[in-house]
Amino acid sequence: MELIQQDPDIHAYLAASEAVDHDHPLVRDVAERLSRDHPDAYSYAEAAFELVRDTIPHSADSGDLRVTWRASDVLEQRTGICYAKSIAYAALLRARGIPAALCYQRLADDDGSAPAVHGLVAVLLPGTTGWARQDARGNKPGVDARFSVEKERLAWTVRPELGEVDYPELLAAPHPAVLAALKAARDRPHLWRTLPTEL
């Protein structure tokens, strides 16, 4: 699949925003600490991925009812769903000058029911051939996502026969439908009822 930059200006994928708030002191502090042990872009991107994947539990896995949507809140409260964790990972990448895009899949249950949009991050590292999607959702039985710029190691591979979709667009900010659902949710059960089913 060919990934498509929504904005042709690469600087859009380095910018801070309301959600991807990499100008926040907490985000900058985490990025600074990570970069001490991982000074090059590749090792930093991998370390930031593992930090978000492994040390911030997906709220559905942990049972946490809180909803986070700003990168700084995700890092402070140490919880979030895939969208929030993707926002946090993108912010940590951008904090070190690494272009990061938000991107999405449409996934469903094994019978094709209950479709929902799933959040990913695409990273553009120096010396690589192009954008590479990463899934920092968090591993669990049956899910083994890993950092990779050569061959995708996402949590799930889409099944077109079930109506699942890889959206090729690389967005500089969270999709408006995703951000609206996060911001409007009183808690995770409310969010679960209002998740976007397609983009």
TrEMBL record:
<dbReference type="InterPro" id="IPR038765">
    <property type="entry name" value="Papain-like_cys_pep_sf"/>
</dbReference>
<protein>
    <submittedName>
        <fullName>Transglutaminase family protein</fullName>
    </submittedName>
</protein>
<feature type="domain" description="Transglutaminase-like">
    <location>
        <begin position="29"/>
        <end position="135"/>
    </location>
</feature>
<dbReference type="InterPro" id="IPR002931">
    <property type="entry name" value="Transglutaminase-like"/>
</dbReference>
<dbReference type="Pfam" id="PF01841">
    <property type="entry name" value="Transglut_core"/>
</dbReference>
